[in-house]
């Protein structure tokens, strides 16, 4: 896929990977719209060259309005990239039901809200690409990741099922699985070294999109070990997870 002239909507683009992705997409000739809660940070990312529209992913009506604005000003959305997430850890000694619900609402329900804003039009046009961002916590339960992990495991499954159902309608679904990118969400899992800067991550995502990959995982040397955690026996996992998380 040639990214030039594609209308791309990055949801969660005020910081980190989403911000770098917006800049990289623009450098590759895409028409870029960006969304997050912080209007000021969005404008800094945009530099006046992108359509920046503040919206909270937990508000489906607000996302519908953003999709309408993008369609009116740039054209129908060709690629939706959903990076918005809340990686807040849980504390098992002070279980916070509200925090759990908020994390899942942003990181999982928020993705459904964004998908719902573009899917009817993509179905009509029989074209489009939907991209979601998962994490190592999508594969196994890590310490303090009960909420973020549940949301990302759910998102992994949502994207897989959507790929099955949307593909016959001409819609592509891509799962991005980053590990160790230097940003806020990257700090959520102790023990995983943050070796990648957001610009490198953004280039990896754009290269994967150009090659029409269903799965984009980076860095390559960690992608397979992350998936292999699924093979560890359930009985051994509590010890293994603590050991991985305590690595310096
Ligand atoms: N960094 C890593 O190593 C790593 C590893 C695995 C997976 N990931 C995944 O990759 C994606 C990007 O990660 P990142 O590290 O770049 O994250 P980040 O720096 O924390 O950025 C998250 C973005 O989401 C936006 N956001 C948060 N809550 C929102 C809400 N309610 N409504 C709208 N926007 C919201 C934030 O902007 P506002 O605060 O302005 O709303 C921000 O732009 C996430 O899905 C993360 O789970 C990252």
TrEMBL record:
Keywords: Oxidoreductase. Coiled coil: none annotated. It holds the Pfam family adh_short. GO terms for molecular function: oxidoreductase activity. GO terms for cellular component: membrane. It comes from the Bacteria. This is Short-subunit dehydrogenase. It comes from Barrientosiimonas humi.
């Amino acid at each position: 896929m040639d990214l030039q002239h594609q209308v791309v909507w990055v949801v969660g683009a005020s910081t980190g990977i989403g911000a770098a992705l917006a800049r990289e997409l623009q450098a590759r000739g895409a028409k870029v719209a960006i969304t997050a809660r912080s209007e000021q940070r969005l404008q800094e990312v945009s530099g006046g060259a992108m359509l920046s529209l503040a919206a909270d992913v937990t508000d489906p009506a607000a996302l519908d309005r953003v999709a309408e604005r993008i369609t009116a000003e740039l054209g129908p959305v060709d690629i939706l990239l959903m990076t918005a997430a809340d990686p807040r850890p849980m504390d098992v000694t002070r279980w916070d039901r509200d925090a759990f619900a908020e994390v899942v609402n942003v990181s999982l329900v928020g993705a459904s809200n964004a998908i719902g804003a573009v899917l009817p039009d993509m179905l009509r046009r029989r074209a489009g690409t939907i991209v979601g961002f998962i994490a190592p916590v999508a594969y196994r339960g890590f310490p303090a990741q009960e909420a973020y992990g549940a949301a990302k495991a759910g998102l992994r499954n949502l994207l897989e099922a959507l790929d099955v159902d949307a593909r016959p309608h001409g819609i592509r679904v891509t799962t991005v699985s980053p590990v160790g990118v230097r940003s806020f969400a990257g700090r959520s899992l102790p023990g995983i070294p943050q070796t990648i800067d957001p610009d490198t991550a953004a280039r990896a995502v754009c290269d994967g999109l150009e090659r029409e990959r269903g799965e984009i995982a980076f860095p390559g040397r960690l992608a397979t070990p992350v998936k292999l955690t699924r093979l560890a026996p359930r009985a051994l996992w509590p010890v293994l997870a603590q050991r991985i998380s305590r690595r310096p």
